[in-house]
């Protein structure tokens, strides 16, 4: 599983997701809420066992990234939300922390290293990245 947040431009973020038999590409807006900041916060919460949903606005439609955990199994689902109120699950995968969670974490980490103009997109706060790093390290220690 691989998720890539590419270099944003003019308030739009190209996103690529792929797995062995599935590929999805879309461009998300930074309004009304920055989805990358939300996704980073949600990863912190998901690692602790809280179910989360991140909204990526493609105007007028949405993609929802849902993460939940039951015991030692993570579930990652991508839902395409069309208006009015039509939701279609386009991807759903269950797996371990290493199979599901770590690829999502790596996508955020890689995005935090991309150089772009502040007018194009807001950078993730370095304290938030440090907190995510700490949570991941703690989870890895628990699982080993």
Polypeptide structure, described:
- The chain is α+β, with helices and mostly antiparallel strands.
- It has one domain: Secreted effector protein pipB2 fold (2-Layer Sandwich).
- Helices cover 32% and strands 38% of the residues.
- It contains 3 helices and 7 strands.
- 22% of the residues are buried.
Summarize this entry quickly.
By secondary structure, this protein is an alpha+beta fold.
Q: Which parts are unreliable, with pLDDT below 50 for 5 consecutive residues or more?
A: none
Domain count: 1
Give the radius of gyration: 15 Å
- Compressed to H and E, one letter per element, the order equals EEEHEEEEHH
Structural class: alpha+beta
CATH top-level class = Alpha Beta
Name the helicity range: 25-40%
CATH architecture: 2-Layer Sandwich
- In the sheet with the most strands, the strands line up as 4-5-6-7
Using the alpha-carbon principal axes, give the shape.
globular
- The end-to-end distance, rounded to whole angstroms, is 21 Å
CATH topology: Secreted effector protein pipB2 fold
Instruction: Count the E strands.
Output: 7
Could you give the topology of this structure?
Layout: E1 2-5, E2 12-19, E3 22-29, H1 35-47, E4 52-57, E5 62-70, E6 73-82, E7 86-95, H2 97-111, H3 126-143
Antiparallel strand pairs: 1-2, 2-3, 4-5, 5-6, 6-7
Helix pairs in contact: 1-2, 1-3
């Amino acid at each position: 599983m691989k998720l890539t947040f590419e270099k944003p431009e003019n308030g739009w973020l190209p996103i690529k997701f792929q797995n062995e038999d599935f590929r999805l590409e879309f461009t998300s807006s930074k309004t009304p809420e920055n989805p990358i900041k939300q996704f980073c916060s949600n990863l912190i919460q998901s690692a602790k066992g809280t179910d989360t949903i991140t909204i990526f606005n493609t105007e007028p439609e949405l993609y929802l990234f849902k993460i939940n955990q039951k015991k030692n199994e993570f579930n990652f689902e991508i839902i395409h939300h069309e208006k009015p109120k039509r939701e279609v699950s386009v991807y759903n995968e269950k797996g371990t922390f290493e199979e599901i969670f770590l690829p999502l974490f790596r996508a955020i980490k890689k995005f935090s290293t991309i150089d772009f103009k502040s007018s194009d997109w807001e950078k993730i706060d370095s304290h938030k990245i440090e907190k995510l790093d700490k949570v991941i390290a703690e989870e890895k220690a628990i699982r080993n």
